Amino acid sequence: MTYGGSGPDGLNTSERREAAREKARILREEHRKRDRRRRFFLQGGIALFIVVVVAIVVVLVATGIRPPSPGPLNMQSDGIKIGANYKAVSTPALKPGEAPTPSKTNAKDVIAIQIYLDYQCPICGAFEKANASQISTWVKSGAATLEIHPIAILDRVSLGTKYSTRAANAAGCMANFSPNTYFAFSSLLFSHQPAENTEGLTDGQILALAKQAKPVKMSSIETCIKNQTFKSWVVASTTRATTGPITGTDVAKVSGTPTVIINGKQYTGAVDSASEFASAVVKAAGDTFTEDATASPTPTPSPSK
Q: Which CATH architecture has domain 80-285?
């Protein structure tokens, strides 16, 4: 037996021990390098994942929440005022955050009718059905003006499609690009009014009704309806109406639709009675009205008893 001599590899015991230690050191170093690489890629992957998630959230927020935009032209009061021959009163658009400006007061012999409505509201539909004919006659002749304020309080009854908001936006589009056909379009929305707890009309069906009204700038109206250009205005105007007050009237706030106002005073009669509404208009006007087949009022120079 020998001690400290060379082995088959030419190394003595001390050298072999040193070589083993060096090999172990190299293996440990390689292991540490592999661990560092694993941690680097793991951390990099997590960072990349976070970046992707943040990017997705930003896109979703950007597409779902739009900054406030101006309201429609010709709706500075949050409504569109329509007079003789269904011609709308021209006004500037409301700026984001700007308070609405009440419409100019009518001449004393012209009745001012205002209505706050939701195009999916069945009671609004009943009022329209009972009174559309006589209101149309009064407005066309210039005996009255009609100021329509479309709001959206019934989105919850359209199975997630938010028809009330879409219809009010479409009304804003018509007011902006073709105000003199607004009256016709509004009538069409009611004659094709969907029932509550249905999806309501599709954008395509709303566009078809818009075309029937024969507006100008139909291509602009189509883009406006599809993009819901005035959605933020619908939200803002609905909030203004439902929190009040309604300037120039005795209405503190709109607590339900339709809210009908005649010469600044809220109509409290039956919404489905043409004769009752006509009587309220006669009383508000303080004039004599001759009755004809259409129950249209005709102001006379002297008030009746």
A: 3-Layer(aba) Sandwich (3.40)
